[in-house]
Please model this.
Amino acid sequence: MPARRLLVVLAAAAVATASCTTTGGGSLPGPTGPLATSTTSTTSTTGPQSPASSATGGTQPSGTATSIAVSPSPSTSAGTVAGNTKTIARTVHADELGVVPVLMYHQLVATPGKDRYNETPAAFLAELTRLERDGYVPITAAQFAAGAIDVPAGKHPVVLTFDDATTSQFQLGADDHPVPDCAVGIMQAFAETHPDFPARATFFVNKGAFAKTPNPLQWLTDNGFEVAVHTVSHANLGTLTDAKVQKEIGDNFQTILAATGKAPTTFALPYGVHAKNRVLELRGTTGGKSYSISGVFLVGSDPSKSPFRKGFDVANIHRIRSQSTPGGPNDQPYESAAELTVLEQHPERLYTSDGDPKVVSYPKSRAKDVGTLPAGLVRNAY
Ligand SMILES: [Zn+2]
Model:
């Protein structure tokens, strides 16, 4: 990139971010209660909660840090940060310790009725539009759990996750393309007109996934989507023996591996219910074959901590239930419509990228919040 263009971009970004009233020194709200889960489940968690209702009334201007149209030179040698990464991090107010929304979707249906877990295709498209407008870029659950976050400087990662592998999420039509009103069809059409918001998502699947399409798991993997574990039979793991827990996870893991050639690395708990023996959610053996999982995702309720933040727990990753139409007062704090509005009002809480996947940038005021970083990543406090 010519130096002159870089300077122009940096200057523009500096002007745009000057209107922000914060540099990212805020801390997360403390614990307030249990997660919202499906009505049939119980769950427990160790992370903090931030119901939207606790965070309304902010006075900061709407908007997010401005994207910067350059990629920094990757910082490759251990312990060093490229000079332009440092400059860009300051310019865009990068904060890679901020929160990341992990959105949870179920079925896209014409008339969701009172089902809190389903939405219309139009509502899904509206949420993609909102996310793109607010400066989000999708990454997969696997990338998130591994701390392999590759979004441009100034942008915010978001994780789109789909549970239960229904045909409203993915179905190929007679022309061998996804049907237009399934989630994959909507994401791909949106990405064509919004190249800064690629079609990337994670599908947590069960036995008989996407029944109307041949070899659906292979197709999804070949087209940039992640296929991940949701147990064979959508089991309530809290009711099962250790052997049955391992069979539900391990057999699902092997089905995905056989279909795609890739071992899945993430797992969403059906109903958000933990196994009695939680270590089996991460690793186990069944039928003589072992499985290993790097990230376990819960059901609902608030944005996740950054994977680089102290206290981030790969065995309890928070999700937000996508819901565009407000539910009752008890539900509202856990819905995407409310949570995304809070983050729009408080962009300083968000994970904002420095554009360099090898470097974890954050304001010096947050240095105490840094957790253990994945191997090969370098800190950049500014
Ligand atoms: Zn499910």
Residues 163-164, 230, 234, 270 surround zinc ion (CB under 6 Å).
